[in-house]
Design goal:
Chains A, B: Pfam families: Acetyltransf_1 (PF00583). Chains A, B: This is GNAT superfamily N-acetyltransferase. Chains A, B: Keywords: Acyltransferase, Transferase. Two copies of one chain form a homodimer. In chain A, 38% of the residues are buried. Chain A is α+β, with helices and mostly antiparallel strands. Chain A has a five-stranded mixed sheet with strand order 1-2-3-4-5, sandwiched between helices. Chain A is built from six helices and six strands; from the N terminus they run E-H-H-H-E-E-H-E-H-E-H-E. Chains A and B meet through helix 1, helix 3, strand 3, helix 4 and strand 4 of A and helix 1, helix 3, strand 3, helix 4 and strand 4 of B. Strand 5 of chain A pairs antiparallel with strand 6 of chain B, so a sheet runs across the interface.
């Protein structure tokens, strides 16, 4: 298993992972060809310094992914945060330590880029995910609040 | 009252606001001259596309601030998120709608930059903040989890 920063060739596999999920099933659209919204979004990620998607690859197949965004900030004496979004591991590879290895890789990347904190939000309905993050040392000290502002 | 993107000249006032806070008091260091950590952090924010601090100004005084980071992502059909951090309003100006106006300005900025969602985390001990965000329409659907990775 290896970990690399995703390129656009990995995008279909990433969208497939996001779709193959309890909540993602209704939010995502894994189709061929891939909806243009994803291609455009990937280009925007690549344009932004500090924003990347990391994939776990086994036997040339994408088996896990997460997004890591480095966010410099003023609070906490100028702490830079590493923010994690969109964590997924392929069903066939669950319970084998893939998620933990993927996080350890992402945390090393974040440290190398000056982060002193990693943060994420997890849906309160995802009980397994919550326990997984607690095992990694995360503390659920905050509420994660969302406001949809799209006009659609 | 007006809202503008902060420049380094506003930084001491921003740090003063962050320090004058129940939790900030032990985390921040408002001193003259300002600790270099803040100056360096502000430079990193300015270097990152999509990252900015917005200040509310009344009578040439900074009376409120927040950080808005635009984060393109793949999940939710390529949704771009506007992430808010470090929200503060000067004690003397509480209960006068400053926070709400500051948020409305930030939300307009986020929409103009293609965001379809605004997200933030708020410490579970900040009950007033939680109610404030709920009034604005935010839903506490997620847990906000943090992991400190600094070596200090």
């Amino acid at each position: 298993m290896k970990f690399i920063t995703a390129t656009v060739e990995h995008l279909p596999a990433i969208v497939r992972l996001l779709t193959d999920d309890e909540f993602g099933a209704t939010r995502e659209r894994y189709e061929e060809p891939l909806p243009l919204e994803y291609i455009d979004a990937f280009a925007r990620i690549e344009e932004q310094i500090g924003n990347s998607i990391i994939v776990a690859i086994d036997k040339e197949e994408v088996i896990g992914c997460l997004q890591l965004t480095i966010i410099p900030g003023i609070a906490r004496l100028g702490t830079t945060r590493g923010q994690i979004e969109g964590v997924r591991v392929s069903h066939d590879y669950r319970g084998k330590g893939v998620g933990e290895s993927l996080f350890n890789y992402a945390i090393d990347q974040a440290k190398a880029k000056g982060c002193e904190m990693i943060q994420l939000t997890t849906d309160k309905k995802r009980k397994d995910a919550h326990r997984f993050y607690e095992r990694l040392g995360f503390v659920a000290s905050h509420d994660g609040m969302k406001l949809i502002i799209s006009n659609e």
